[in-house]
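Appendix B. One record, verbatim.
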Amino acid sequence: MPAASPSSSPPRHPSSSSPASLFIAALAVLQAGVIELVDDMTALWVALVFLVPGLAGILIVGVAFYTRVIGSTDVPLQAVSGNWFVPVVPLVLVPSILTRTEVLGGPIDSASLAFAAVATWGIGFGLFLLLTAIIGGRLLIASPPAAACRADVVDLARADRHGRARDHLEATLVRMRSGAVFGR
């Protein structure tokens, strides 16, 4: 398969995997504190070291994703995929982190942590719904892509009238494998 030219390849999506991995590390350290593998304050401070850059990374990735992908009119319809929801996913980890921080008895009162946990979950869910509406709007407004194959790919109704549905289907599969159907 020939390599795609730079002009025809879709734009690279900013990755939220690094900030998410920092969130997971913070969550793991806090869980180690909850089950008393490490001291409570040590777990809190180490988790903070992971959490702060993770939050900054999520903010940077979110802004970059919006400006390069969602806010761009140059992104083709074929580039719309489930991957567009990935930058929102790490926000689900924040309530888990804050809940474990509350269990460890951090320096912030329980009511504030509970409010922050629910608020971050709500922000993540709200962004998920907003992104769903944006993707749905793009799919509804855009013209449909060209058909991938001709209309005569499988004409089982015609073949079945003569009792040859299986033969016709097998012949069609042979044509598809050879590339005759899809124009290869």
